[in-house]
Amino acid sequence: MAERRVIDLRSDTVTVPSPEMRRAIAEAEVGDDVFGEDPTVHRLEEMAAAVTGKEVALFVPSGSMGNLVAVLSHCQRGDEAICGSEAHILQYEVGSAGGVAAVTLRAARNDERGRMDPAEVNALIRGENVHMPRTSLLLLENTHNRCGGAAIPLAHMRELADLAHAHGVAVHIDGARIFNAALALETTVAALAEPADSVGFCLSKGLGAPVGSVLCGPAWFIARARKMRKMLGGGMRQAGIIAAAGIYALQHMVDRLAEDHDNARVLAAGIAELPMVDLDLAAVETNIVIFRVRGDALAFARALKEAGVLVTMPGPDRIRMVTHYGIDRADVEEAVMRVHDAVGSVAV
Fold first, then answer.
1. Is 188 helix (H, G, I), strand (E, B) or coil?
2. How many helices (H) and strands (E) does the chain have?
3. How far apart are CA 291 and CA 289, in angstroms?
4. pLDDT tens column, 226-273
5. Which parts of the chain sit beneath pLDDT 70?
6. C-beta separation of 344 from 312 below 8 A
7. 246 and 121, same structural domain?
8. Contact, 148 vs 315, CB < 8 A?
9. Using alpha carbons only, what angle is made at residue 321 by residues 291 and 288, rounded to the nearest 5 degrees?
10. Which of 230, 252, 274 marks a domain boundary?
11. Are residues 41 and 177 located together in one domain of the fold?
């Protein structure tokens, strides 16, 4: 009897390149990018700058490196940056801002939809004082990973950015899934990025590329960021091999994100029927479904794994599922059925 196919809902980072994307990789024209000679990287960076509405762009190996490069480029050693309490850079990037950049992160509380109270952010910005670090950067995130993939409205982003700029504080957006946010909010990536000085986005999540992110901003910022990337060991040589996948992703994988959002809503509706689950269907805006389990959430996750449905746990009582390229409607319906069958034995 054949083994059941594993339905991997841990993250949209588990996508694999389509045959067409693999062909683009194989046929990529390349050169030495550290010498500025890779034409495919140049093309990707030009496309990224255009789609975000920024002056220029820089290809980096990962979103985490992009965030760290942004911190290094906007801040001096000993400075302070403000971020949300649930921000990816605070929760999942190994303390790189402090450990590498010597920049302290100061957290403002994120509500359940990823928003921060402007009054709290304002209170956290330090004035000039010989005893205190300089507040040099405000870090925003859109969509907000740990807050259910929430798409943060432009008005809220602009309010926070305007507040920061009034104090002379730069603004960077961790836009790992900003294409998902633009789709959910029925706007453009450039509109969402406009209030910020810099923005980064991932090619390796919902857009389906195997590796890579792009950091975008003004020319002076990207010139410094290029040097910071090199300092971190991120200077890649014939990087057109992977940049070609990014070009294909921007050309062919953006519109299909709507399928992931639709599938996430179907998935959420099915999971919400379970008696031990607390799930607000209205909060499922993009491709991330996060819910609370009343009872033993770890046993819940283990039961799903045994049933061939892989998930993650962003908290002791929370389960996260992510829809993505490679997961179709039939997979979602199968996953819901397996979950219902599997958790019947889990104590609640």
1. coil
2. 14, 13
3. 7
4. 999 999 999 999 999 999 999 999 999 999 999 999 999 999 999 999
5. 1-2, 345-348
6. no
7. yes
8. no
9. 85
10. 252
11. yes
